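A further point concerns the way the authors explain their paired sequence and structure data. Each protein is reduced to its one-letter sequence and a matching series of backbone shape codes. An entry of this sort, consisting of the sequence and the corresponding backbone structure tokens, reads as follows:
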Amino acid sequence: MKELPSWKIVRSESGPDLKLFQARFDYLQNPRNDSVERMIILTGNDSTNVVPVLPDGRLLFVRQFRFGIRAETTELPGGIVDDGEDSRQAAERELREETGYSSQNWTYLGKVPSNPVFMDSYIHHWIARDIHLTDPTDMDDGEWTEPLLLEPAQVKQKLQSGGFQHPHTTSALMLLLLNHGL
């Protein structure tokens, strides 16, 4: 497979601050026809999520309302990596904040671009085995989650039927399934 030619960055300019992201406008020259296109890029910290597994093999998910689709989703706990954290520290914090659970048994599953169409960040996926309840939840003001325990067979069925609405949950579960089994 041949390598595609690079798009030349003609100039960049700052866009609005969008709370979780900073917008940037990049003007890029298409190598195919030299046309200059204005593209919006959302810059921000990487994110992380966790596949939490209880000692009995059940997986812990959270149900929460997602503003973009105005609907409740079932997804893995996770969130943005804060400044000064690495992705595992953020995964540990997010698991504890959203569910009250903790683990001493962590494995890195890998990372994928959050949305390479217009974002410059990645989502880091972790598995936490042998989780146990250690703390009360500690959610952000704009957050509300409810825990949901699923058997591995239920997770597989929901994954196969397209029942998970969040792409970060789907990519984490696919990495888990392909590399570690479910």
